[in-house]
Q: What sequence folds into this?
């Protein structure tokens, strides 16, 4: 065998997505990405993502609680949808689970205050953020207010062209030497100072007995528009998120830039793939879960028992007694993907990456066989046999993928929901597109990776 043939036969070489697909597939890729950008621009909270999913499912003929093509929503922050397969459910499921929460700024319970004739809203950051990312940029207010009379009022301010936006003010460099410049990066912006500027005009009545007239003007405006009083903030879920739409990035428009791609990129691609698979061999189950960014706590998260309830109901719909034995027998035959993003190699910070093992943008869906940190602590690790089965199917269906880790061994790490699902006995692996600027207000994905994530999920649900 010649050396060129030997090299081709025995060595591994990663493939760029755009070097493997033809002109027609590139056109379809652009259509998928166009729909994704619309989704990403509109869905900036868990509730908005679940509402989007519900509307799309019902448009495609799915009904709440239906036996064959159904969906289930819990607390407006968890979504499960299923399509019954040709094989009995006792032979296992095909599951794709993604999380739909993202780092953001939550309003505190008593957020509104006035100082120096300016009105602000106090926040508490949610998830792992770099606090300096969130100052001196336009922010939008998204969320709901639950009234005592039972009404739930939706609020979105800052997304329409004529809307106002909000912001957190930063200190000018002329005065920042001691209070910011000489501090560690993590200490330069203090969490307690992530206060959002919301008003600056006093209420028109000049009664001197009213001391906080700017604050009162804000309350007057929000009451006129939404019927909300200051006490209603206690029963509200209101978040500050980056204002504006997702955008194409680069002169060649190779990338998508926008907020919340960790992990709504996987939510979108998994749902789209699911809706395009008709008469699957095995029962397909898509899950949108909450609270992953803070350790999967709470009753809409992967650590809750909501998943068990969904599967028990599917077993009953199949006419089978939902015993624990049946449940765990099904789980042992189930194959799943924890659909989550990973870090792409950033050449500006190459010192934290393992170039041989980390994911590159443009080289397809990134499969993370194990997550965790420092000696694989807190990790799920997919078994070799399951990984070989999955990659064989992707090879046969021309899915471009890369198998990767995240960063050098002692540089840090991260976790996903995979370990919680693995505890039921199913085979599961992490897979999703690599990102740049992860957990920032403007994350970056490559169009080719988004498309291959969708294609990979669709293939998985078919086999």
A:
């Amino acid at each position: 065998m010649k050396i060129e043939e030997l090299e081709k036969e025995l060595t591994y070489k990663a493939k760029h997505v755009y070097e493997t697909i033809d002109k027609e597939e590139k056109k379809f890729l652009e259509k998928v990405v166009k729909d994704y950008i619309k989704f990403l621009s509109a869905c900036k909270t868990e509730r908005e993502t679940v509402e989007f999913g519900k509307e799309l499912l019902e448009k495609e003929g799915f009904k709440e609680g239906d036996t064959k093509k159904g969906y289930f929503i819990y607390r407006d922050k968890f979504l499960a949808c299923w399509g019954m397969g040709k094989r009995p459910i006792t032979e296992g499921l095909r599951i794709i689970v993604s999380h739909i929460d993202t780092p953001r700024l939550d309003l505190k319970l008593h957020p509104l205050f006035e100082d120096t004739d300016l009105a602000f809203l106090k926040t508490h950051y949610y998830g792992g953020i770099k606090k300096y990312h969130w100052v001196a940029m336009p922010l939008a207010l998204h969320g709901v207010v639950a009234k005592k009379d039972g009404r739930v009022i939706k609020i979105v301010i800052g997304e329409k062209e004529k809307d106002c936006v909000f912001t957190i003010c930063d200190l000018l460099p002329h005065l920042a030497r001691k209070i910011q410049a000489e501090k560690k990066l993590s200490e330069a912006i203090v969490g307690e100072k992530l206060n959002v500027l919301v008003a600056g005009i006093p209420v028109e009545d000049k009664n001197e007995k009213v001391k906080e007239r700017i604050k009162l003007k804000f309350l007057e405006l929000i009451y006129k528009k939404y019927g909300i009083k200051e006490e209603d903030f206690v029963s509200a879920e209101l978040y500050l998120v980056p204002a504006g739409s997702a955008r194409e990035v680069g002169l060649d428009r190779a990338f998508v830039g926008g907020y919340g791609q960790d992990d709504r990129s996987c939510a979108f691609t998994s749902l789209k793939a699911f809706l395009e698979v008709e008469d699957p061999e095995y029962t397909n189950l898509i899950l949108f879960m909450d609270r992953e960014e803070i350790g999967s706590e709470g009753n809409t998260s992967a650590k809750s028992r909501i998943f068990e309830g969904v599967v028990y109901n599917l077993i009953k719909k199949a006419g089978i007694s939902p015993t624990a034995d049946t449940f765990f027998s099904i789980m042992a035959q189930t194959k799943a993907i924890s659909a989550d993003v990973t870090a792409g190699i950033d050449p500006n910070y190459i010192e934290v990456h393992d170039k041989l093992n980390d994911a590159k943008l443009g080289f397809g869906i990134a499969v993370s066989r194990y997550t965790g940190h420092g000696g694989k602590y807190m990790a799920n690790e997919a078994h070799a046999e399951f990984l070989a089965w999955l990659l064989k199917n992707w090879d046969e269906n021309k899915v471009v993928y890369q198998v990767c880790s995240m960063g050098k061994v002692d540089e840090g790490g991260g976790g996903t929901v995979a370990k919680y699902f693995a505890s039921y006995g199913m085979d599961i692996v992490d897979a999703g597109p690599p990102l740049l600027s992860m957990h920032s207000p403007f994350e970056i994905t490559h169009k080719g990776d988004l498309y291959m994530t969708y294609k990979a999920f669709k293939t998985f649900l078919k086999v």
